[in-house]
Structures are given as C-alpha cells and as structure tokens.
Amino acid sequence: MSKVMRGSPKEETLPSDGPTVSIDKAIVENQQTGSPGCQSGIRLKMYASADSQTESPAKRRLPAELTGTARRIKHMFTGGHLGSDCGSQTEARMKWCPILTNSPERLGKVYKIIAERGTRREKKSNEDGSAYAHHVAGQPINKPKNRCESSLGPRSMDGDVLPFDINRVHLANPIQGNDYINASWITEPAFEIPADLLPPSHHPQPQHAQTWIASQGPLDETGYEFFRLFFHPDPARRPKVIIQLTACMEGSRVKCANYIPSKEEEAKLFRPHRTVPLDSSSSHPKTKWALPEPDEMRNLGFIRVTLEGVESGPVQPPATNSFYHKNKLLVELLPYQDEYQQKIQPIAQARVVHYECISWYDHGTPEFVEPILELISSAKADSMISSPEESTPRTSPILVHCSAGVGRTGTLIAIASCTAQLALLNSCHLSERTLKANIISHLILPRLVPENGRIAQLPEWLNDDLVARTVDFLREQRVLMVQTAGQLDYIYKAVACFAASLS
C-alpha cells in the first residue's frame, strides 16, 4: 500500500543537454577484511564534471504545500547533525532550490532509466572481472543465507538479492571459514563544490560522509552473524545503530526474524549456524543448517541480546502517531558453556540503539516525510563516536535493513545522503550569483568510471538531479536500491521538504 505526502508535484521543464563534461578523478576507498578467493577491499574510481556557470533555464520552485513544513523541520537539522552551521544567516543565503519537482511523466521517465540501468548491471554480473559479480553470495553453501523474495521484480539468481563481491560485508569472525553475510557496505556520493564558486574567506571542512550497512532482515539461523557485526575489532567499522524498516510479519509472509526481546529485561540467545551439503554429486547440492563443530563452537560462543529500555519516538506533525520505537539493547558475547549454567560472564559487551519502524510496508512509502527526516537526524546523532584523541566526533556505520535490504533501505539512505549534501551546501557562504543559479548543476558530481564492466554514466540531462544521481550511485553498490517509482517520488518529496526548511 503506497502512501505519499499531501499535495501534487508541480510540472517541471526538462533541462537541456549540458556541455561536454570534463574529467576529474577522485577515489573512495572502503577497506575491509577479505576472504580466500575474494577481493580484499573496495576501490571505486570516480570521475566528475562541472557544468558551465550559467543559470538553468528551468525555474525551480517548491510546491506551496511544502513550505508550511519548514518551521517544524528546521530545528531538527540546525544542531549540526547533518553538517549545517549557518545559523541565522541561512535565510539570507539560501535563495535557491536545487530539488527538481516532478510531474508524473518526468518521474516515470527518471525511474525507467534507473530501472533499465539495473537490468544492464544484472546482465553484466556474470562477466569475468565484473564490478557487479556476486559469485560468493551465489555459492550453494551460501544460498540458504539469502532471503528469497518472489516479488522483487528484476533480481539476481533464484529471486535472491545478492550483494556484489566487491563491497559485501565480511564477517570478522567467520563460521568455519565462511565469512559471508547478506549485507553491503554503502558509501554516500562525495560531491564537491568547485573552488571558484566559494568565497575567498571560506575554508571548507573535510567531509565525513556517513557510511551505511544495507542488510537483509536476519533469518532465524543468521541472528548470531547479524549481531556479531557489533563486535568488529575496528571501531570505524563497528555499528552502534540499527534501523529496522519492516515488521517481522506482513500478512502471512515472514519478512524478518523476530530478533528483539518482546519485554524489557528479557533476553534472546543466538547460536552460530553453518550450512552443510547433504550430497556432493549434484551440480546443485542440497544443504541443511547445522551447529558448528564443538571446537569451533568454543571459539565462537553465543550471543545474548537483552532489551534494556523502550521509548516512543516523537510525533512529527502532521502525523498523529510515533513513526518508530527506540529500543536500547545490551548485546553480549558469551563463552561456549552449558546454556543452562547460571551467571555466565560475557567476553564482550556492546550497547546498541535499535530503531523499530514497523508501519512502513513492503514496496510502499510512509504517509508523511517529516518523521523520516527526524529519524535520520536522531540515528546519526546516536551513531557518533567521541574519543579524547580526536577534536571532532566521527560517525560509526549505521546498519539499515528491511526485508531484502533494498527498497525501503535504499529509500532511507538516499534521503539521508541528499539532505546531508544540501546541509553541506547550506554551510558554504556562496555568492549571490551562484545562489541564483541551480547549484546542483555546478557541483562536481561523482560518477563511477566504466571500468571492470561498469555501465556508463547517467544521461547528461540528469546532471542537476541530485536525487536521481544519488539513487543511481547507491545502485552501483547494491541491486534494487529504491525499488519502486513511488519510493523514488517519496525521496523527491522528503528532500524538497528538507530544502524548504533551509529557505
């Protein structure tokens, strides 16, 4: 059931083709522990373009219905969670609207291009050296770990959503040598502002783009692996926050294992599982779930999750109910002992904030955009890492999952990425001339180089479409991120609402 925000988007003139792009390389690295036969890290090369400094012929205006949300939203983002530090000067300087409002015709055209590009990536996934290969996820021993979704549309093998080998999450503590979990590291596009557009007095602060883990909802047998991510030895790769965007059941369909205790002070125990083949002669061997060998169990232990507290999120008008519950979890790694033995001392502990949003249904969107903006701000604040050695806090990865970890998950990450970019722009003291133009068309826009079989960039008429470029960038890292045209429309509305709060 798809619900959208009140008001219809205004008609938008399509921008004309821009000038020939110039090449400017940058590198985004995402190092992670590798496994035998797999690439040990990610190195995504990107090139960029900067259009000429001419004003866009298309007029950019927010729908009138969105302007009433500005006062409610503005206070959520001026505290620095998303990079805004402009204070009282915001209104004087933010005279631009970089968000394209969409007619149904234009929205359909943009979504069609994004969907067709997803099909092209899938066709390239079996090519040697392809950046879209998902060989590890498709191995018979790992297939039971993938949640099969029959309603996903164009998809990878046998209906599963499979993470690309190049940026899949590796378990730091493999179960009998198997480090696979159905999750992907997601990097936000790092847009840059050309130096000639910045005033001489401006000294841009280095960007600390939020890192995300896009995961499928855990299965009953993969709960241990899921929570083991919160004990990663590297603090920069150790999440502190989970955002759950699905109910465990929708109708008669299981969407996610119920991995949170139902009452405060209650606990759930998770044991490691592995898959073992039932036969070795078949080209498609059947497998079953089993506990690891006793020696391996002693190395892995158990995980206990205790619900320490629950609070309801704030009600964001015009909504009348809380969009989420905020659960505080104590996650403990326990030694392998008799599970009935009392007073087992944990090996390690982690406190995790769990946002539970159970009213966002598969393939749909929430009714309003204000609650999702507040959720993103709150989750980013909870993900901050402070240390005496660093003058400014850093953010830890935020783990987001729905059922398959693509549609609702991609929608939230896209909104968070776009609004963070707008907040960064808002913190720059841009000239009046620059503000009068569409600033997005001036940005150095990252686009992945067509190497290792990557497909070519988006068409040039989408150069100034922040949402389309962001969604396509996310799909370069995980299939089907943002799954429906309705979800794409919801992103435009949420980002437009945020832009209105800066005006």
Tell me the CATH superfamily: Protein tyrosine phosphatase superfamily
Which architecture per CATH?
Alpha-Beta Complex
Whole-number count of domains = 1
Spans of at least 5 consecutive residues whose pLDDT stays below 50 are: 1-98, 150-158
Question: How would you characterize the largest beta sheet?
Answer: 9 strands, mixed
Termini separation comes to 32 Å
Overall average pLDDT: 76
Order of helices and strands: EEHHHEEEHEEEEEEHEEEHEEEHHEHH
**How many strands?**
18
Outline? globular
Report the β-strand fraction as a percent range.
15-25%
* Annotated CATH topology: Protein-Tyrosine Phosphatase, Chain A
CATH C-level name: Alpha Beta
The SS-based structural class is alpha+beta
- How would you write the strand order of the largest sheet? 3-4-5-17-6-14-13-12-9
Cα radius of gyration in angstroms: 23 Å
Query: How large is the count of helical segments?
Result: 10
Helix content: 10-25%
GO biological process, one term: signal transduction
GO molecular function, one term: protein tyrosine phosphatase activity
Region (Disordered): 1-22, 119-151
Family: Belongs to the protein-tyrosine phosphatase family. Non-receptor class subfamily.
